[in-house]
Amino acid sequence: MALIVTVVLLVVLWRIIGPDEARPGSSARPRMQRRPRAPRRRQQLPPDDNPDFLRDLDRRARPEE
What we know:
Elements: H1 2-17, H2 51-61
């Protein structure tokens, strides 16, 4: 009995969410379109974690040769 119920549920779910081409004579449903994502901002690093800042500090701390 459980096997029959499972098969019936799978068939119903396939008809609901399955590909539109599988249903003959049905009109194609419009698919939801995704909105384009906004470009991510580059996370700002604190000065003690920023390698460029630390490299500049090291350069400034060394005496000119």
